[in-house]
Amino acid sequence: MSSGASVLVISPEPVGAVMAGPAIRAYELARALAPDCPVTLVAPGPSELWPDDGFRLLEAGMADFEALGTAVERHDVVIAQRLPAQLLRRAMRSSARLVFDLYNPIVVEVLEAAAHESPTVARRAQRIATLGVLAGLTAADYVICASERQRDLWLGGMAFRGLLDTRRYRDDPSLRSLIDVVPFGVPDAPPESLARPRWEGIPTGDRTLVWGGGVWRWLDPLTPIRAMETLRSERDDVHLVFLGTGRPVTAEGASTADSAVAEADRLGLLDRAVHINPGWVPYRERANGLLAADIGVSAHPDHLETRFAFRTRLMDYFWAGLPTVTTRGDALGELVEQRGLGAAVAAHDVDAFAAACAVLLDDDERHARVAAAARATARELRWSRVVEPLRRYCADPPPPARRPAAALATTTGQQALIAADLLDRHGPREVVRRAGWAVGRAARRAARATGLSDAP
To answer: In the chain, what are the domains?
Structure first.
């Protein structure tokens, strides 16, 4: 029975049948905490839960300030990947403990995401992301992230910002009580295939490489596609499937799926050896495609985002017992090499990528050994296990510690940049609309404070 502090988990995207990483993370954290704490998951609509989830759902988006603010004030612990400036300020005035989930290194990811923009727009996007993270770090009572590398990144940022409290350090020289690692996990139950997927153009008995997840600007889908050309020169029974490229919530400018399609077409492989699903696989159906595959693949360039990334698609490969062929440079690439979970090759090395896949396809004993290692690793990374630091925090959260003046200054700078970005991207009408919404909200708050809430 739930007996810990009441917990509010805020998802930035809708939860339900079709979800991408941020929503999956929020949903699974809520699910893992629910046996020990009363949990409410708040997410934009339309959202839905499954009957066995064991926690409440509140439909509210980041713009639903009153609903979110009230929910924050009614819970002991609030877990969020990001909070709008005005909601962060309200949360800081509440008694809730603020837990920021920085599993996504947005401050370096934005460098790649905005690389195609003008220098002015790219710089502004970087500043908005940076100020948002700094505001969160300043206001946070506790921070979680996905890897030790990420923890080093956030600790460095906090150190240079003067956010490492000397009294807290004396009590806990590791500072694990301030920031700890909660990786992206995998379901506790092993995957079960509900139905074998029907991939048009793939004969029964052929071998399949699968690319799970989206095709983003900071990834490298071209190396696996070009590796397919090499593999197909030796054998005609191997295929590469991109499970889904149509993210349920659009990330403006992030997808490079068109480039992947164009390259496969240029090589004469599209729909013959390279199969790209323009949709998105429902979350609880992804096991179908994973269990029908022979190898999971992922690739990325050698850049800063890679170093701090946590490629969650690889977690699905481990869960499904798939050998993984990936690129070196990130935390999970290291794990693949250390645990014998497949192969990690140099960035953009098409020949090495193809050779690593060929070895796993041709050597059944090796494939079975690697698959067993992947499943063993997945058991260590179940959500019920990786959530343990957060579970301990929620079981007995310390009194909130606030730095309101510093966080307020950070959020103010963030709002000015967001307004300038809105003006450039959407014109003055959108700025006026947002400003009118904010003025209206302030007027409603003032009316309630003076007892005039029913006034026209």
So the answer is: 7-185+386-449 (3.40.50), 207-381 (3.40.50.2000)
